[in-house]
Amino acid sequence: MDAREFLTTAQELLQGNREIDYRNAASRAYYCAFHLCKMLLEELPKSQGTLGASHQKVILELLSYPDKEVNKLGKKLEQAKRLRQKADYQLNVTFSRYEASRIVSQVQKILSEVDDYLRSLKDKS
């Protein structure tokens, strides 16, 4: 399965009009970003590798990688994780379409940046 399918599902869920749709959109979008970033780490030289790694381990490895562009992906993934946690765990707090749109938009950027980075790695080899 391609991790990008999570983002497609998130975009479809944004068309709904229920809070559960927005919460599920945030969660699906985050998982797209998580899997893409994990895949990127597995391709990077000098990466510790994250096969089977926890979400926080992936974020920390991105943040500590010796490339500023990869570090930025770590920050974006960390922000997306926070919103996903709110959507999944803070049921007593309203989760809006705006918040879901924010995470979907952020993940679209992550997708583009991961694809660009992977392309640049292939060009160097």
Secondary-structure map:
Blueprint: H1 4-13, H2 19-43, H3 55-64, H4 68-89, H5 97-124
Structure, described:
The protein is mainly alpha-helical and 125 residues long. It has a single domain, classed as Four Helix Bundle (Hemerythrin (Met), subunit A). 76% of the residues lie in helices and 0% in strands. The protein contains five helices and no strands. The protein starts with a helix and ends with a helix. 33% of the residues are buried. The model has no long low-confidence stretch (mean pLDDT 92).
> What is the CATH top level name?
Mainly Alpha
Structural class: mainly alpha
Number of strands: 0
Q: Residue ranges: pLDDT <50 for 5 or more in a row?
A: none
Corresponding CATH architecture: Up-down Bundle
Shape: elongated
Number of domains: 1
Task: Kindly report the CATH topology.
Answer: Four Helix Bundle (Hemerythrin (Met), subunit A)
What gap, in angstroms, lies between the N and C termini?
26 Å
Radius of gyration equals 15 Å
What share of residues is helical?
over 70%
Number of helices: 5
The average pLDDT value, as a whole number, equals 92
Order of helices and strands: HHHHH
Main β-sheet, in a few words? none
Q: Proportion of β residues? A: under 5%
